Q: What sequence folds into this?
């Protein structure tokens, strides 16, 4: 089944709007995108290398480090202008790369 980018985008816009309304968001921040394996044998290193070529800084989060206890790859775009559209553009690029490497998106967050 193909990935539903429209639903993912709508979720990102809704989350952005909720965060902006509840807390206010900074003008710029590092944006983290999280990915989990979607199939056996998904290669963390290959995904990190591919995302690094796209300008993302990548790190592996073990179950102990991950907020929800599920190991994931965090792909960070530093010092991004914060808007729903900006977050979505980075998320879409990273998600397309992740899907090609056997990973699925698992949300995003802001640092700074």
A:
């Amino acid at each position: 089944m193909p990935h539903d980018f429209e639903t993912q985008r709508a979720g990102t816009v809704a989350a952005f709007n909720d965060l902006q309304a509840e807390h206010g968001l900074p003008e710029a921040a590092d944006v983290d995108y999280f990915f989990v394996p979607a199939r056996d044998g998904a290669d963390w290193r290959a995904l990190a290398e591919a995302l690094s070529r796209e300008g993302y800084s990548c790190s592996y989060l073990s179950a102990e480090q991950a907020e929800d206890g599920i190991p994931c790859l965090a792909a960070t775009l530093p010092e991004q202008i914060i808007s729903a559209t900006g977050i979505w553009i980075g998320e879409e690029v990273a998600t397309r790369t992740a899907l090609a490497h056997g990973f699925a998106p698992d949300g995003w967050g802001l640092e700074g």
In short: The longest strand covers residues 28-37. The helical segments are 5-23, 44-53, 84-100. The chain is about 40% helix and 30% strand.
